[in-house]
Amino acid sequence: MNKQEALQHFKEHVVQERLEQRLDEVQQIFNQRQAELIADLIANFQHFCQQVSDMQNEGKKADIAFINFSMLRTSILSESYVYLIEAYSNEWYEDLHKCHFIYDVSWLYSCFTLLMNDLKQEYKKYMGVLNEADAEIAALETIPYFHQFIVALLRFAIPDLIDIPSYQSIGKSAKITIRVGEYKDISEQIYAIDDQAAVMESSILQNQDGFAYGDAHNANLHGLNMERQDMRYSDFTGARLEAARFKECFLFGTRWYRAVLAGCDFGGSVISDGDFRYADLQNAVFCQASAQHLNHKGKRLPGVMGLHFEYANLDHADLTGIHFFEQAYFTGASMNRTRMNLHDQDKFIFSDEQQKAIQWVEGEQINETAAILLTAE
Q1: Inter-axis angle of helices 143-161 and 106-122, to 10 degrees?
Q2: Checking phi first, is residue 298 left (phi over 0); if not, alpha (psi -120 to 50) or beta?
Q3: Strand pairing class (64-71; 82-88)
């Protein structure tokens, strides 16, 4: 076995197996501590915004147009495990007035260090063909698989972050964007606000031209009818969508925070990682939808967050027949005559009041189309 063959075997068999094991551990930590991790993120962001506000009050910082959450590889390698939260004016990286805050993510990247140590032991089995540097390089290539948990956490926490008084009080440009990625490298947008763009993109919705990563917050889209559209990671916060229909759409990672969705039909759509907190979902229908979790060679998005229905109104909603319905949260939700499959009764945490109010239905409905949608994507 030459060096190239050894490296290929090492990555395909050893690295992949060890990575999956460590990511399973991360997922377990993430599920158990999700509320705590969100609260910690909010507290850090609050301190960061206060720092921005202090600089602006001293005349040292212009209106903010960009906020970046930046992953630092050097920090991970040195085992300090921090991200930078940075604020920039419209000049972005040319803004010379530095403003950043350190956000500790040890809970996540300590598992990466364990993976690194695993690989530094395993390479020795290749009888001198591989060396420690090969193991380190292979480990570094897995960092994006850990980073995806931060992306998921940030996307979910956005409604809470932008509601913080210290964020509301800072001077902001007419257009503001929040991004997450590697420090001064590739990043992705997780939030943007531009009132003119929102109006324009709402009209696109009505023409059914697709809406991936779109912004329709507070839009009035009563009776919207969408079929097989890609609407992943779109933001419908506060939107009015009574009696809207979403037939076999890609809706994973969508945000419906405080949206009015009474009578809405999500039948056959992929709704993994959907955020329905505080939404009005009276008489909404989720039959044949898919909450499938992606788990393929280290990729866990969508599916990291699960479905969130905290404090939503689910009265008379139909949650029977959701495929891969395994991770959901119902704290504080109104569930008077909500239809749910009896076999889901022990999967989730319900209050005594919710248990009694839910209409438990025997049997199961599975939609193969919805199950295929995500894997085909």
Answers
A1: 170
A2: left
A3: antiparallel
Tell me what the mean pLDDT of segment 34-44 comes to: 93
Closest CA to 61 of 172, 178, 177, 189: 172
- In the predicted structure, residue 203 carries a pLDDT above the cut 60: no
Can you tell me the mean pLDDT for 241-262?
A: 93
Task: Give the integer Cα–Cα distance in Å for 252 and 324.
Answer: 13
Q: How far is CA 363 from the centre of its chain?
A: 31
The whole-angstrom separation of Cα 275 and Cα 252 is 9
* Pairwise CA distance, residues 248 & 218, whole Å: 24
pLDDT at residue 171 greater than cutoff 60 = yes
Provide the β-strand partners of residue 172.
64
Burial of residue 88 (CB within 10 Å: 0-12, 13-18, 19+) is: buried
Whole-number average pLDDT of the chain? 87
Helix (H) or strand (E) holding 16: helix 16-57
Q: What pLDDT was estimated at residue 367?
A: 44
Mean pLDDT of 327-353: 93
Mean pLDDT score, 205-230: 79
Comma-separated ranges of CATH 2.160.20.80 domains in the chain:
194-377
Q: Please tell me the class of the 194-377 domain.
A: mainly beta
- Phi, psi torsion values for 173, nearest 5 degrees: -70, 165
* Higher-scoring residue by pLDDT: 372, 65: 65
* Residue 266 near residue 286 (C-beta atoms within 8 A): yes
